[in-house]
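User: My instructor asked us to take a sequence, write out its structure as tokens, and then describe one feature of it. I'm not sure where to start. Here is the sequence I was given:
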Amino acid sequence: MAGIYIHIPFCKQACHYCDFHFSTSLKKKDEMVLAIAKEIAMRKNEFEDDLIETIYFGGGTPSILNILDLKFLIDEVYKHYKVSENPEITIEANPDDLSENRIIELSNNRINRLSIGIQSFFEEDLQLMNRAHNSAEAKKCLEIATQYFDNISIDLIYGTPGLSNERWLQNIQIALDLNIPHISSYALTVEPKTALHKFIKDGIIPQPDDAVAHEQFLILVDTLGKNKFIHYELSNFGKENYFSRNNSAYWLGKKYIGIGPSAHSYDGKNRSWNVSNNAIYLKSISENRLPSETETLSKTERYNEYVMTGLRTIWGVSLDKIENEFGEKYLKYLIQNAQKHLDDAKLILENNVLRITREGKFFCDGIASDLFWV
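Assistant: Let's start with the prediction itself. The structure tokens for your sequence are:
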């Protein structure tokens, strides 16, 4: 079982916090669609024995593509790979791209899951982030989308300067009132070389407050927990049967191919990534060369990766798997380094599986790094 991720490297405008690879110039869009289709075909032998369970359009903003482009790329996957009978096919979209006609078009094709970048239902937050949509569009697109799609995820961001706990709770409540079955939620992070980083450095916007972000994270965890959401990964909450199959595959170490500029791939032992440059990507594909680099993961890297992804999820870190796949030395090291976090109730050990507790969740990345083999 495997997945295909397709990176569409275009956006209408740059969000102040974003450091993903994209271009706001659409001049090469048609050329890029053809190059992505060609890469899909070029890489068919990598997964010839694997059934494709998920196809995921990420970006950038995949909803910038018209329906014919999307249909063409999905058809290319079906042409060159074995696709399961009931695959999850997701497109990331922004509210300003989702008119009723557009939603109907998407629902009439093979796409069966929408991941919508709401980020906030409030004007002041959207303006601070430089989002292309407004509050009314955020609500309106979901009211329409829920009529045509059952499987919808939205993104929400907490910890933004000026976001009160009360307004954050209202954000969550609006999503609950709209009966959205999956929420991905992230603390605002300040990445180098972003507009947000510059505004904070210049004193135009205050630095996000970690203590406030922690409070808002716990509000999110507790509110969604009371509303039958399962907190199955640190930033992801889904009702039963609505977990993202695509993202769950990453966290469970399944294989995936990443197509398009900056996309990453994993075959169980090797990780590869495409160049994060549209012009170089296009030139390389036109010359029938894959614009990628590959590294073979060492045992230690695979151990560290399993610890990191395992702790972030409800599946946890299996001590049996550590012993069987990495050996007794790694198992002893893990238990020894986990002890202080078990003592202060940030980790729990049940049925030979190490899991993060509610109190530990916000500090998960730091706890994982304590357990890494360095």
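For the description part of your assignment, you could build on this observation: DSSP finds 15 helices and 15 strands in the chain. Try explaining in your own words what that tells you about the chain.
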